[in-house]
What we know:
The protein has helices at 2-18, 44-50, 75-86, 94-106, 110-126, 135-147, 151-163, 170-182, 186-198, 205-217, 221-234, 241-253, 257-269, 276-288, 292-304, 311-323, 327-339, 346-358, 362-374, 381-393, 397-409, 416-428, 432-444, 451-463, 467-479, 486-498, 502-510, 521-533, 537-549, 556-568, 572-584, 591-601, 608-618.
Amino acid sequence: MMMMMKRIAALQKLFNNNKSSAGTLFFSLHYPPSLSFLNSHCTHSQTNYYCSYSTKNPVKSVGFSNNNNNNSLDLDDALNSFNHMLHTRPLPPIRQFNQLLGTIVKMKHYSVAISLIRRLLFLGITSSRLFKPDIYTFTIAINCFCHLNRVDFAFSVLGKIFKLGLEPPCATFTALIKGLCLDGNVARAVRFFDEIVQKGFQPDLITYGTIINGLCKIRNTRAAILLLKDMERMGSCQPGIVEYNTIIDSLCKDKQVNDALKMFSDMAGKGIMPDVFTYTSLIHGLCNLGQWKEAVRLLSEMTTRNISLNVQTYSVLVDTLCKEGMVKDAHKVLHLMIQRGIEPNTITYNALTDGYCLLGKIADARKILEFMKARGCEPDVVTYNSLINGYSKSKRIDEALRLFNDMSCKGLIPNTVTYTTIISGLCDAGRPLDVFVLLDEMQTHGQQPDLITYATLLVCLCKEKRLDEALLLFKMIEDNGLVPNIVIYSILIDGLCKAGKLDAAKELFWSLPVKGLQPDTRSYNIMMNGLCKDGKLKEANDLLNKMEEEGCSADGFTYNIIVRGFLQNNETSEAIQHLQKMLDSGFSADASTMDLVFNLLSTDRLDPLCKEELQKFLGIT
């Protein structure tokens, strides 16, 4: 008992450092002001409803024995039961109220549960001392506040627990840790976890799993692995399949598949058998890296272990096949999963729809749309985005717009991706006026343009030679708090080069490192092309050397740009050197370069020596 009191005192001191001033009023037993904020979680009409008698007949059994199936209750039944229990004399034990509250929480009616707990607190004041909300009642309240994103109020409940001299179980602290993670404050959750462990709290598997999940969600997988190793080292709480799966999935999403496979092997070595979620994460990670052979091996291993594929596994296969252009095979997988009794979900259908759209097979994509609806699976925003993109890329912008307008009729809200896709289609169709009308509509409907949207608009303006507007748009990007990336700068540099403003383009290009950006291959190519077009071949050649010095690899476009630049200025020897370098690097001359070569050979523009040198290199006698 003495140890328990010391631990509570230590934890209470810790709580005082975490609690919010807004939440200190939470569970004070002096009504009315202290609990009045509870009503802020419900509308006025809701509060009256929750706290009134139901017009329906109360359910007969309010004892909730183990034979009662609470999950079969709807909210109205649960409220009837609560009111009936509340007016039963003698009052049922608090644990029965807790069971009912737990059922309401499972229905995700968190505000309702808080309102009912409030009534129990008042009842505890006015009735016999034998009836009091217990630690589990308070833990339910903490859980509800955390799901309502009011972690500050949840901590105030913890303060009340300490004030009453109650010792919180693992579930109480786990709920608070989960609340902090849900609130995006994983760092504070980890600090809180470390501090309560130092004060003598013994976390259970769910607590550890909550922290590991939170760390993986913010891509701090290394910290999650360290925590898992701590669990193994201490021995009191050994990690299980859920903890391993969480980390393996996170590693795969971080493209660290080799590390994930090693953990998979370690897990099996510890006698923890992988399940369908383990295999699905690994197969997805391997497919994303193009490691088909290893992915197929794992699929085969699943079959050997009698582990059935689930909808997520099938969806991964459909998505991967579509990305590889093997849409017919993906379609066969869809039919196979249906034959095996696995119903495809929206993600599965979306992958197949997008696959057909990427191949320009819009009619087939529309058939998938109709098929999924016929099977009772409603299309979502992603489905429409894929179809809109397919129509836009096929230069059928009016059909894309009809589909866009159809979204509102279906109750779907177009997102930033939807608007950006339509804007791109309108730009390609040469309809810049419609583009800016749509941009206004986008912002009116609360969808903010992102860097991809702005990049699309910049391309449109530069293509229309409206450079002044492009520069204004560039300033708008910065004014809106977005940081332009290398893609945005490359578009602008290209626009300046094509508008004949080479000096401005050069100044912007050389300022990139100062802005914390490193030119990539595309930005080097754009600048090099601008210099070649302006006849500044030495600068272009110096830029190529600079590119190689900076460790930025030249590609086929780089060599073709520089070769054409030298050929167009009759510098055949330099052109041949770069042609040879291009071939040695595994690239070849493109159609434009070859057309230029043969045009030069068929005219008198080249002097005889240059012509002879070029013919010799090409093996033409």
